[in-house]
Amino acid sequence: MNIKKEDVVLFFRQNVKSIILAFVCSLVVIIGGLFYFNQSKTEDYSGVSFSNTSNETNIKDEKAEDKHDEKIFVDVKGAVKHPGVFETTKDKRVKDLIEEAGGLLDDADTSTLNLSQKVKDQMVIYILKHGEKPKQISDSGTSSSSGDVININTANLEQLMKISGVGKTKAEAIISYREKNGDFKKKEDITKVRGIGKATFEKIKDKIEV
User: Across residues 8-33, what is the average pLDDT?
Assistant: First the structure.
């Protein structure tokens, strides 16, 4: 069967609208299919990502709760209504333990006490009475004289000022650093406090502990 060129041209001219319409419909179907496939694929991946993120968040929250719920023991002494050893958690502060001990006595002196300090295991909180001389209380609960080693993690302002070469300004800087960064991990960390360099540390290293 011989098809002439004129016949082909005539066929296209007579059916041009139908051919264009069919071509457009085919494009619409193809583009729609691609769009649906890509959208489904994206949703699947985003679902997996959300699931992983959710699991990681839950694990972090559980660890944070476990850390806060970890039980510790703190000894509250001095001018409180009910002194003793209290079971508590690491997120508590000195003022919270004083409240657990029944509150302060009328003659209690908190001027040298950091009520906002977070407590730690085996910590001793000693509340002075007005007119009572400050004492250095170690974590073991024994009193020591001003010539003994000072714990730079638990000492208050007046106790820190007893360290040779540490005046009020440096003592306040130590407390400020402690409140912002937490306890000192080793004695050498005290050189991170503003105003205390290596020369000062060499003079006081035998008089401090953590």
Answer: 76
